[in-house]
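SAMPLE LOG
Freezer: B-3
Tube label: C17
Construct: single chain, 336 aa
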Amino acid sequence: KMLKFILLLLVVPLFALNIPKKLTSSLESGPQRILINFKNPVDLKAYAKNNGFKWDDMEENARGKLVVKLLKDRAAETQSKFLMELQKKNVQYDQLWISNAIAVERAEKSFVLDLHNHPEVSSVELVEEYQLLPKDTVAVPPKKKQTVEAGVQWVKAPEVWDKGFEGEGITIGVIDTGALMHDDLKATYRGNQDGFSHADSWLDGTNLRRSVPYDDNGHGTHCHGTITASSTAEILGVAPKSKWVSCKFLTARGGGNYNDATRCLQFMLAPNGNSNIRPHVVSNSYGGGGYVRAIDIALNALMAAGVEMVYAAGNSMVCNGVEYPALLPQAFSVAA
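STRUCTURE (predicted):
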C-alpha cells in the first residue's frame, strides 16, 4: 500500500502539468528539445482596455517599447527563479519572452519530471519538426529576365506604382528559408543601409546561427524577390522601394519547428533588441502542423505593436484547406 501511495504521488503531478504522452515516450529514447510555457502571459488587449487607451492611437516608437517592456517584465516575473536554476545546471536554453516560454535544447527525462516542482510552469511541449514547405517549392531562376514578373502584374502592382506608392519608407520582414544576396536584393536589404548592420536586419533562427544572410533552399530568396526586388535597370518586386529584413528558421529541405519560428517572431518585434526598427509588415509563406500556443501569443504581441502579419493560406489545393498559422485570427491570410 505504501509503495502504491508513493507511485501515485509521482504520477499525479505529471497529469497536473499536462505532459504530453508523445513527450514522455520520446524521452525514453534520450534527451529531447522541449518548450516550457509559463503561466499568465500578458493579455495585451486587456491591458489597453484596463488602462483606457487603444494600441492604434499610440505613437509608433512608444507603442513598440511598451509592448516589449510588458512582455519582458512578465517573463522576468515568472521565469527568473527557473532561469537561475538552468544557469546553475549549465542547461542550454533560449528565452522566448514574446510568448513567456523557455526552449531547452536537450532535456533529460529527470529534468522534465522535475518540472512539477515549479508552480510557475503551465505546460511543457515536445518541439517537433514539420515539413512546412511543399517539397517542390525550391525556386528556379527564369530563363529570361522580365522587367515585371507575371505575378506582380496580376496583383496590379504597376497601377499602384503609378499612384506614387512603391513601398518607400516601409520595411518588410520575411520569415522563411533565408535570402541570398542577389543583385536585385542588395539595394533593398536594410543591413546594407547607412546606420544599420546584419544584426539589425538578419537572424538565423536555426541551430547554424550564421551571422550573414544565406539561403540553402531558394524559397526565401524567391519570396524576398517577389516583395522587394529592385535594381537600377528593372523593377521586379511588388514594393521595389521598400527595405527588407529576414529571419531564417526553415531548413534546406523546407522543414522546421515552431520554436524557431517563435524566435523569428521575437526578432521581428525587436530586431537586435530595438523595437524602434521593427518592420511594418512580416511575410510568412509556410504552414502546417496544427495550433501552437507560442505562435498565437507572439502574434498578439506583434498585432499590439502594429506589425501586420501576412501568412500563406496553404498549398493543399482543397476546400477548407487553410492551415495554421494562417487560420489564426491575427493573421492576414493570402491564397491564390
